[in-house]
Amino acid sequence: MYKIGVIGHRNIKKDELKIYKNKVYEFLKKKHIFNSNLLIVSPLADGADRLVVNVAKKLNIPFIAFLPMPPEVYVFDFSFKSMKKFQKLLQEAKEINVIPQKSVKNYKELKCEQYIALSKQIVQECDEFIVLWDGTFNNKLGGTSETVKLICKSKKEYTHILLSRDI
Fold it and tell me: What is the pTM for the complete model shown?
């Protein structure tokens, strides 16, 4: 299987979603034409993660979930509606991988450490990446820009879709 990792922001401008969906569709369609053994790797968070997975599903490209923590903890960051969508996608995933949990003092610390570990694992596991990102390096540990730095260090290929964020 050729694994394409999804990296991107959670807060995408709603009025531009169709533009990004079309760009992702074209990217995945081209990849799928040349390689029928594609597999999407996604943390299934709101925004970019789910956008790519939903487009992949339309093209019959399977996906696996890479989660920074057990699902019952990960959903603390989701709204009720988002949690329901997450649970549905989790049931449709070909496989679910959870990053082993570190021993930390509090949830905020746990979250940061787990997102850093998730970024490293996805970069290690995937052959290529699709990055939906505003292009701003903000040094947020475990965030999109730090993961892009890891991808660049790994010298793996990635496609950057520049996007606008809701702030």
Answer: 0.92
